[in-house]
Structure formats: C-alpha cells, structure tokens
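The records we work with from here on pair a chain with its fold. Taken together, the tokens spell out the fold as the letters spell out the chain. To see the layout at work, look at the sequence and tokens printed below.
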Amino acid sequence: MLSLRPIRRFCHAASASVPVVIASTTDTSSAFSKQPPKRIPLQESVLSKLKAERDPDKLFALFKSNAHNKLVIENRYAFEDTVSRLAGANRFDYIEHLLEHQKTLPQGRREGFIMRIIMLYGKAGMIKHAIDTFYDMHLYGCKRTVKSFNAALKVLIQTRDLGAIEAFLTDLPPKFILELDTYTVNIVVKAFCEMDFLERAYLVMVKMEKLGIKPDVITYTTLISESYRKNRCEIGNGLWNLMVYKGCRPNLTTFNVRIQYLISRRRSWQANDAMLLMQKIGIDPDEVTYNLVIKGFCQAGYLEMAKRVYSSLECRSEYKPNVKIYQTMIHYLCKAGEYNLAYTRCKDCMRRNWFPNVDTIHSLLQGLMKKGELGKAKMIMTLVRSRIPPFTSSQLDSLQSIFLKS
C-alpha cells in the first residue's frame, strides 16, 4: 500500500544563401583574381549586433529600427536578452516603448505573443505594466484564456502581496469568464508555500477542488514538501494519505521529498523501505534517491548498508554514481578508516573529472600516508593536479604539505 502508517541565447538566426557571382567570358581572369567578399546575411547580422551591443541607447535604437523584422520579433531569446540588459541599465522607459509598440503589431492578436510581453514586463520588474497588459488584451483584438491569466498571476506573485494575489484570483475569473485549471492552483500553492502560508496554500487546494479543479501530484508534492520543511510531519503524512485516497499516484519527486525528510530525522531504514516501495510500484529511484539513502545509512552508522546500496546503483544501466554520491561515500569511508576502498572510489571519481572537496581529499591523503600507502597517495595527488579547472595554489600547497610532514 502507498498510504503511510502513523509510525513510518540570441541563439539561432535563419541562414540566407550567399549570392552566386558568374564571371563573364570576357573577364575571366579578373573574376578569379578579385573574389567577391563573403556577405553576411542581413538577419544574422541584426541578431549578432543586438547580442554584441552593450550601450543601452544604441541597443534600444537598434532594436527599434528592427521592430518590424519578423526574425527579431519572433525570436524569444532576442527579446529576453534585450529587455534583461535594458532593465540592468535601469532604462525602463526604453522597455516600455519597445513592448508597447509590439502590442500594435499583427502578432498582438495572438495570446502567446501577449503572454510573452506580460512575462517580459515581469522579468523587468514592471509589474503594473504586466497586469495592465492582461487587462487590456481586448484592445489588441486578443482573446484571454486561462493561459494569459496564469502568466499574469505568476508576475503578480513577484510582489508577494497576499491581498492583491487573492483578489486577482477571486475577482478576475468571473469578470473575464475564465475557467481556472490545475496549473493555476499549482502556481498559487507554490507561491503561498514560499511566502510561509502553508494553511492558506492548503485551503486554496480545497477551495479549487470544490470548484471542480482536481489537484495533481505537483500540488500534493508541493504541500508535502513544505509540511516536512516546517517539521509538520503529521500534516505531510496526512497529505500523502489524502493524495493516495484521492487516486493521485505519487511520483519520483514525491518519494524523494519523503525520503529526504526521513533522512533528516535519522530514519534511514524507513527511507530505504520507501525506496524499495518505489521500485515495487514501478518508479525507478534516481541519483538523488540513492544519494539520500546512502547518506542516511552513513550518518546513522550503517556503513555496510550504504555500501550495499552503492553496489546496487553500480549494477544499474540507466544511473551511475554522480559526484555527490562519490563525495558522500569517500567522506564516510575515510571517517570509518577504510582508506583503501576510499582510494578506489576517489580514483574512479577523479578520472571522470569529478573531485571531492579539498577537506575530503586531505583526509584521504592523511589516512593513506598513515597506512604507509605512499604510492596510492601520490596517485591521488597526480589526479588532483590534473583537475580542470585546477585547484588554487593554496589548496594544492595544503595537500602537498601532507607529504612533507610524513
């Protein structure tokens, strides 16, 4: 059973063809001696100039002069980059001029295009302009749906104004005859959790469910995660049971949230049981799951169990140990005095250009030197020097000093 028992870039420019020059028969030699210069396509040149321009005044002028260029208008990265840099220069007047002009274009009748303008205003911190754009969509001949409502809601949430968010959520849908969806619920639930209003977030889910909007696994996972973060395990466990009762199946993220909480409470065996349950119902653990369980067993002093879990990960084809798992294993192996196994893990890790932190390497080198394993210590030091990017000179000196003391 799944229920819990109480105890447990400007990136891409369109390419244009370079014109072919055909030499006349009367001037063949001059045609070969004077090759025509390679032309840069106009559109590509505009995007490159926008990307390279750092002066906000020139950037604004360049963008404005290409305000009808489809390649620029339809290029989301060009817009985002330009608005971001103008906002960084505090030229909000330029941003307003550019985006207001975009509304007047034929593309302004497309909801997706207006949503982008709303999000760009939000990215620039111009919240009022974003909300006004949503209110005025009918002026551009653009139909509102829940998609543009959600875009405006996400921008409004940046204000963290609880009253304004609740009013927007309550007043706007009936005014514009909009049917909210599960994504709306998830936006609000996540925002209220981040604002430390767990109870309000839960009530939003309950209210929306009464209106026929069914919460999904993202809704429950967000609430469960926040409950565990606030150390309200009874609420988190209750939400899990409610989720299962309602027929909503937990996913990988939900299980990882649960396992992380169990590990934080030093309940490593229950965390391992949760991982086994995942596999039993067809959800494969990922690197995060394995790292959490391995770390849990190590912290609880069950190093042999941590090794077994690590070995089971190595046998899998789709996942392999990552740098965090290596770091965890090497750290606790050194702590337990198992330097030879720590050396093997560390060597494998470093050969992939994944390096434990300097303190862990320092501990390993000290242990190897004490055990008289000079050759292995030198091998680790050789790999340390091959790191890209390299360690700092002070870090290298600190590690090298271990050899001088022995």
Notes: DSSP finds 23 helices and no strands in the chain.
